[in-house]
Structure formats: structure tokens, C-alpha cells
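Researcher: We're teaching a course module on how sequence relates to structure. For the next exercise, students receive a sequence and then see the predicted structure as C-alpha cells, so they can try to spot secondary structure elements on their own. Here is the exercise chain.
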Amino acid sequence: MKKALIVYGGWKGHEPDLVAETFRQILVELDFSVELSETLDAFLDAKKLMGLDLIVPVWTMGKITNDQLQPVLRAVENGVGIAGCHGGLCDAFRESTQWQFMTGGNWVAHPGNADVEYRVEIVKGSHPIVQGIDDFTVRSEQYYLHVDPAVKVLATTEFPVVDGPHSPNGRVDMPVIWIKYWGAGRVFYNSLGHDNKTVAAEPVRTLMKRGFAWAAGGKA
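Model: And here is the predicted structure for the students to work with:
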């Protein structure tokens, strides 16, 4: 049986406890043994992390110490997958450029806040994670991210939808879902997931389920 660790906490507005429970249910459906932790000290046990198949952070903002960070970086580099959504993965530790280097991007803005209706466009044929899923509309935060050019983009959204100082730059396609590699490890990210309702709704739930399964395959 594959093993997953969900570490949740940080800013409460993203409902980390509820999202962690939804993720736990998804992973159980995938036949994972799942451990949940409410402390970043769960990352201190390097040997334990190396024995996992998947790490799922649900931790918006906050700070991570070097002693907590380094075991995660090494575990993923050695084949342990890491996967997550929204601020729980790519707005986790704003001061840690190493975390951002591993995950492939970092949140910088969400013009219009949480009440923006926008289209998510699937990059057809890009990966089995998005196979058979059509473009869809959501009403939530639309994440503007600074993104690693090495990522493989699986879905995008068009900016600007809400006017702002970014608007004079014209139309841009912002990545919403991507994958990348960190050594032997696989990284999956989905910028959707402002609250548990968004995470639990389709097709986001299916995308997360497929992303977890893919990311956990790095050791193989």
C-alpha cells in the first residue's frame, strides 16, 4: 500500500482542515495509507519522508525552517511525489525560494478576489491527468502566478478578467494546472481550491485525484 502524508495549517481562510479531509478521502479511494499532521515538524523526520510515496501540503503562508524544508526537498528529489492546490502548495512559504523552485511557481495576486467568474481551458492532449475533461467555468479566486518556465502546463486561464494595473499588458494565458520534476520526484499543482467547496466540486476533485496518483508514481 502506498503511503501519503498530508500536512495542513497556515491561513485559516482556505479551510485547511476541511481541504485536508477531502484530500484524505480521495487518497483512501486510491488505496493510500494516509497520515495527517497539523505541524510542519512532520517534515523533520527525513527517514520517514523517504519512505512515503506522496507529500500533500495544505499550508497557505506561514514560515518553514531550513530544518523542516531540507528533508522535503531531498525526499522529493529521491522520488517522493508532492502535490497540492491553490495557496496550500504555491503560496505556502513566501520567503522560501527553494520551495518555489521545487513547486514550480508562486502566487502574486488574485485581481477581483474570490468573486471572479472565469474559464479554465484544458490543454488538449497534454497529459492523461486532463484526458476527457472539457473546459469549464469557475467562480473563485483567479490566481496570477509567477511560473517556472520548466513546468508542463495542463490548463490555463485568460487574464485580464478584472481590470487592474496588469490590464495594459493585454491578454495572457496564465497556467492553472501544471506538472514538473524535481530530481526523480513528480510535482503536481492546481491553482483552483480557494475553499473546500471548490476542491470537492467536479471536475476539480477528479483533477486532484489524478494528480495525486501521477505524482505518487515517481519512485517507480
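Model: If you want an answer key for the exercise: Residues 116 and 139 are 5 Å apart (CA to CA). The two ends are 14 Å apart (CA to CA).
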